[in-house]
Amino acid sequence: MKVFVTREIPKIGLELLEKAGFEINLRGNELPPTKDELVEGVKDADALLCLLTDKISRDVLEAGKNLKIVSNYAVGYDNIDVDAATELGIIVTNTPGVLTDATAELAWALLFAVARRIVEADKFTRAGKFKGWHPTLLLGFELKGKTLGIIGAGRIGTAMALKSKGFKMKVLYFSRHRNERLERELGAKMVSLDELLKESDFVSLHVPLTSETFHLIGERELNLMKPTAILINTSRGAVVDEQALIKALQNRRIAGAGLDVFENEPEVPDELKKLENVVITPHIGSATHNARESMALMAAQAIVDVLNGRIPQNVVNPEVLKKLRGGQ
Ligand code: NAP
Ligand code: GLV
Ligand code: GLV
């Protein structure tokens, strides 16, 4: 059995595939694969292990005549044409849970960095501009008593909210379903998107990117926010209309933003880079040693399971299983 792996992942995952006796075709390039490379790679592969940067379109899936599984090394799977995979009888899996805290912690790191102007202060200090303590030097926002608005109260959104406990914040959330744990443990309140945007001092995005959440936060929504509010995005860039956000930040319609994701990654607009009230990181939400190792194990295990005729954990298109059982 052949496995096409589009990028070097932590060794522990590759070793699991080796031990299972599969032939590994590891693409030796740090940059995302082109469509041609993907098509070539899946041609004789039984399994594909890919990253969120890899666009797994219908054409790529159709080229994989023996392809049984696409194992995404990420929890988000907006890079994959899941409907096409289901139609073609290909199982799609992701890596939920093991990166929840790593990502929620990064969202907090961004929130603090923007609220207390850490990056700006660091640059200021390094530039030798610190001439002595001053009452109005680099003033920021305190968290205590403020309102945190969570958009998408799933695994990461819930973890983000729960970590607010020590900061004594009020929590609002907007999601598809009620989250009883947040209500019970934090007294959090489920509200409409508009109410959340109007009332929150910190808004943190945790929805997946889908046709429903594309540009969920645009000009109208940014205009509902407080001028002192801060937006944190560790979900997907396209959940926010990036151009509208740039305008809102330039005009100080909102106070700042902490962004780990961008609409057209790896492109980061120059206008964003020029803004002092923005902290930007290169999509490193899950970038901790243990999260990345656990993701590697999980992604590899799904392939081991499928190629041995077992149903893996974390199937994102469970409909495909019925189809496979039906022998179609
Ligand atoms: P999750 O558990 O599925 O949580 C997503 C939540 O959003 C769910 O509660 C979901 O509701 C809700 N939701 C979906 N569509 C919605 C809509 N149209 N309106 C309102 N709420 C909606 O996923 P997760 O594990 O927390 O991950 C969330 C996302 O974070 C991933 O999809 C990925 O894009 C991103 N992520 C980024 C990084 C990074 O490196 N920056 C790392 C990990 C993840 P239901 O419960 O009803 O489905
Ligand atoms: C990272 O962005 C993920 O979806 O795992
Ligand atoms: C600040 O350093 C203080 O002592 O108030």
Overall description:
The protein is an alpha/beta fold. It folds into two domains: about 1-100 and about 290-325, Rossmann fold, CATH 3.40.50.720; about 100-280, 3-Layer(aba) Sandwich (Rossmann fold), CATH 3.40.50.720. Helices cover about 35% and strands about 15% of the residues. It has 14 helices and twelve strands. The chain has helices at about 10-20, 35-40, 60-65, 80-85, 100-115, 120-125, 155-160, 180-185, 195-200, 220-225, 240-250, 270-275, 290-305, 320-325; strands at about 1-5, 25, 45-50, 70, 90-95, 145-150, 170-175, 190, 200-205, 230-235, 255-260, 280. The strands form two sheets. It has a seven-stranded parallel beta sheet with strand order 8-7-6-9-10-11-12, with helices on both faces. Strands 2-1-3-4-5 form a five-stranded parallel beta sheet. Strand 10 (about 230-235), helix 11 and strand 11 form a beta-alpha-beta unit. Helix 5 (about 100-115) crosses helix 7 (about 155-160). The longest helix is centred in the C-terminal third of the chain and has 19 residues, at about 290-305. It starts with a strand and ends with a helix. The mean pLDDT is about 100. Bound molecules: NADP nicotinamide-adenine-dinucleotide phosphate and glyoxylic acid (GLV) (2 copies). NADP nicotinamide-adenine-dinucleotide phosphate binds near residues 75, 153, 177 and 261. NADP nicotinamide-adenine-dinucleotide phosphate binds near residues 153, 206 and 207.
